[in-house]
Structure formats: structure tokens, C-alpha cells
Design goal:
It is a single chain. The protein has 226 residues and is of the alpha/beta class. The protein has two domains: 132 residues, 3-Layer(aba) Sandwich (Rossmann fold); 57 residues, no CATH class. Helices cover 48% and strands 9% of the residues. It contains ten helices and five strands; from the N terminus they run βαβαβααβαβααααα. β4, α5 and β5 form a beta-alpha-beta unit. The radius of gyration is 20 Å and the shape is elongated. The N and C termini lie far apart (51 Å).
Length: 226
Amino acid sequence: MSDSKRAFVSYSQPDRECAHAIVAHLEAQSVPCWIAPRDISPASDWAEEIIDAITAARVMILVFSSSSNQSPQVRREVERAVHKQVSILPFRIEEVTPSKSLEFFLSSQHWLDAFPPPIEPHLQRLCTYLKAQASQSQPAGTVPSVSKAPPRVDVHGAPASLTERELAHIESVLAGYIGPLARHLVKLAAARASGRADLIARLTGELDAEADRSAFAQRCKQLPSA
């Protein structure tokens, strides 16, 4: 597993000790990991770093417990992983049933239980599983797809047809659904979008519920008065 395809470790603060034990065990056996706050650069945008790390990850290891089960931050990270098509491996350290907000994303996932104690045999089983998954490489001779030239953009990285006011409005609407990650997602989508309609369509895909998608698109079109 290369450094650019690390295992992203998602956890809630009460499980910090267990999360770092996982990282220490995996990295001792040459399985690189990404974990916050250790791997977040000083003075960087926290949300942006997390989203980039999830996007670059090969797998998300979810330290699953009663605490992470109720954590909005963990749920948001799991949502991002699902949208980015990053596989999720729940590492269950307590016998807990997923909340409704997580069950939707985790019901079809493979699980590893890390109980009863001691935890060491479970960590080794996790390591063995990840190494087996990493060994399944891409078929030889795979040719990367060729994308079209990017649309014309202004100095802020947004399509020239969009104003700063429009971008701020769209970001504000999206933030109402997904929180501070909206800023980074709008920035990424705007760099690729050909215009306002294309940008809204790209961001609509970040929402899971059809009702939210419809409402988001409608609200983005209703630019408030200056």
C-alpha cells in the first residue's frame, strides 16, 4: 500500500487511544495510515485536509463504538467516504448496533469485531485483511481515461460565468446540509464546472436524499437580493 493510498482512520475522541493503537500496529507492519490531528498540517484548513485524505485513501477504518455511533463528525466522514467510493471497514470495539444515520451507509459493509479482549489478535487480523486487499492490484495495461480540457476560469478558480456573490450563495446553501465541508466541495466543483447550472448539478450529487437534492437545487437558483 503506497503512501498515496493510506488507510484513513476515523474515530471519535473518546476512542483516541484505540485509534492510535491501530495506527501504531499497522504502520509497524508497513501499512501507512492517515489520522487526525497527527497528519493535519499546521495552520491548514482542517475540513479541506480531511476531505483530501479521504479522497486519497484506499480504505477507511472506522473505529466503531457507542461514542462514534453518535458522533456527527464521524458520520460526516463516513458520508464523504461513500461519496468518494472509498471502501469502509468498521472495526467494532464495542457490541453496538449502528444508529439509523449510520446504518444506511454501513449495512452492506464487511465488519471486524475487536472483542473480547485482548485487542492485539484483532489488530493482527485487521492488518492481515488490509494487506490481502492491497495485494489485489489493477490489471496490467490499464490506461487512464483522458479528460476534456478544463473550462475557462477566473483568478479564483471559478467558472468565468459565475460571480463571487453567486458562489458565496451556493456555498451557504450547501453548508446548511453538510456543514463546513461545503467550502471545500464548492471550491473543487467550481474548478471543474462549466457554469452555474453545471456547478449546482455537481454539488447536488453530494446529498443523499432526493428531497434534499431538489430543495438544494431550487434554493441555489434563488439568488438573494443585494
